[in-house]
Write a structure and sequence with these properties.
The chain is of the alpha/beta class. The protein has helices at residues 2-9, 16-29, 34-50, 53-64, 72-76, 103-119, 137-147, 164-177, 192-201, 230-252, and strands spanning 80-84, 88-94, 97-101, 123-126, 155-158, 183-188, 207-211. Helix 2 packs antiparallel against helix 3 and helix 9 (192-201) runs parallel beside helix 10.
Length: 254
């Protein structure tokens, strides 16, 4: 009964409501112009599929599974952990002060801390203040690491970058200054391909450690996954953004 209620509610809330309206428009247009009706119907179908968890899990899974966590031997060869930023809120109240990381970088930070405790390596926090009203990511992450009792001497910060390309450029400079050569890159699984590419363009060989997974590795079908959901649409848009940004990075190196 719970699943049935969720399925029904999806059609009276956006984006399901918009899909119903587009279907009605498609039927109405058949009375005047069949070709336009087919065109609207086609794009309605595409929009519907983009809003389903079934398609979102397939698309995001394809992106997230490009890298697997490294072996212990690979981890033991590393000399630094680099955590890439992904958003912060400047004035949000936190446990020990003001300013907090968004969901994805918070997950990345958790993984980075666990690796630091396991390997006793320094952590390089890479991420600046992207917008005037967003938080300085590396500075906020530094405060959180100190709260989690990571030694201050084990923390490096890079506060100038506002995108992945700059993450790689400014981090590479610090690595060379500190004579560090084999970083573990910690970032969201969907973001890892582009991150690796950017560091490779800086001549840095990295050990990818994907985290912040958004979909199961082996998803199981359930009829609720064919209902329209804004969350599924967001996942599909994220995949398209990453594919486009990776393409731009490969072609224009930006």
């Amino acid at each position: 009964m719970v699943y049935l209620l969720k399925f029904g509610a999806s059609w009276i809330l956006p984006p399901g409501l918009f899909i119903i309206l587009l279907i009605i428009l498609t039927i109405y247009l058949t009375r005047f112009n069949f070709k336009i009706s087919l065109l609207v119907g086609f794009w309605t179908l595409i929009f519907y599929l983009m809003c389903t968890g079934f398609v979102a899990e397939k698309a995001m899974g394809w992106l997230e599974q490009k890298y697997s966590p490294p072996t212990q031997t690979e981890l033991n060869s590393a000399d630094v952990i680099i955590m890439l930023g992904g958003g912060a809120i400047r004035d949000a109240q936190d446990v020990d002060g003001e300013g907090t990381l968004c969901a994805s970088p918070a997950n990345r930070l958790l993984t980075a801390v666990r690796l630091q405790k396991m390997l006793n390596l320094p952590i390089l926090l890479s991420g600046g203040q992207v917008y005037s009203d967003s938080g300085a990511e590396a500075v906020i992450a530094l405060r959180i690491l100190q709260t989690l009792e990571v030694p201050t001497e084990k923390i490096l910060i890079e506060t100038k970058s506002v995108n992945t390309t700059q993450n790689a450029i400014f981090s590479a400079q610090i690595l060379r200054e500190k004579n560090l050569h084999k970083p573990i890159i910690v970032t969201s699984a969907f973001h890892m391909r582009r991150a690796v590419l950017n560091f490779e363009q800086q001549g840095i060989e990295v050990i990818p450690f994907p985290t912040d997974f958004l979909v199961p590795r082996e998803p199981k079908f359930h009829y609720t996954k064919i209902r329209p959901q804004s969350e599924a649409l967001l996942l599909n848009v994220t995949v398209m953004q990453e594919v486009l940004r990776t393409f731009v990075t490969e072609i224009f190196k930006v």
